[in-house]
Amino acid sequence: MNILKKKSFKELFKKYSVIEEKTEIDIVLEDQYKKAYELLEDAETSQLTPILVGPPGVGKTLLCRYYAQKHKKPFYWLTMDESTKPVHLIGGFDPAIAIKEGFSVNSYVPGPLVNAMLEGGYFLANELNRSTEYAQNTFLEPLEERSIYIPRLGRIKANDEFFMICSMNPAELSGTHRISEALKDRIKVWIPLKYPNKSTELKIIRANCPESDIPEDMLESIYQIIHRTRLDSDVEQPASIRAGIAIARLASLQAKKNGEYSNRALSFASKHVLFGSIKARPGVRSEDVSNKIIKSILGV
Length: 300
Known about the structure:
Blueprint: H1 9-16, H2 32-45, E1 50-53, H3 60-70, E2 75-79, H4 86-90, E3 91-93, H5 95-101, E4 108-110, H6 112-119, E5 122-126, H7 133-136, H8 140-144, E6 147-150, E7 154-157, E8 163-168, H9 181-184, E9 189-192, H10 198-207, H11 216-229, E10 235-237, H12 241-258, H13 263-277, E11 279-280, H14 286-298
Parallel strand pairs: 1-8, 1-9, 2-5, 5-8
Antiparallel strand pairs: 3-4, 6-7, 10-11
Helix pairs in contact: 10-12, 11-12, 11-14, 12-13, 13-14
């Protein structure tokens, strides 16, 4: 019996570590995404802080990564939540080195915000309104004075090329906090992103399923199912673009196994994706809603 030699973490890390600068990102840059991209450029040129506002899965983070790639800038980001603390943004001291050398530059491990400020890169405060006001206050000085105070080391000034972008979910979604008035006053360019129009969404789904030759009528049905979740009064949080991509991939695999594309294969895929991709209103089961929508579109 062959026993595979277990590779060390070091070997695996070296093989699979992601080098951001070498990872090519491609998106469907049209309609609202093209307008948002141009607004990001205008905000940067005007030295104004922008924020992308839209539901989960609409492509806010991906657009920012693409923007940084096209402008050939270092890109740092942090997805924020209630547990985010200033140290996650600013950084802190390595205890082992600090014991030997004290609280010095050598023992300091910078956080993503400080790295972006020093390198003149882009920093994305992702899902800003999931964080507390305590964490949000970390951004007040960088946005107002373009500097930040590092405890025990002192204050640093941001590189002239530093640019901060924010993103947030709609305030009505559960798990969000209000953005403090002080921070809101420093964010000057508000860029709304909604679910894309039909043509753009279908292009996004197809672009994310490059190995699948999905028939146009099946793509149309996938869009109708996803779109219906956004209209149904029983749905509190509808399916995102990611759900459409997942349905397309799973349905394509089912079709290859069965030898043909069929509504039955699409129904199977849709049920298993939508089960956890939508949130029904209180008192209604998500499974019942998704089954109702799928049957109304596919008849099975």
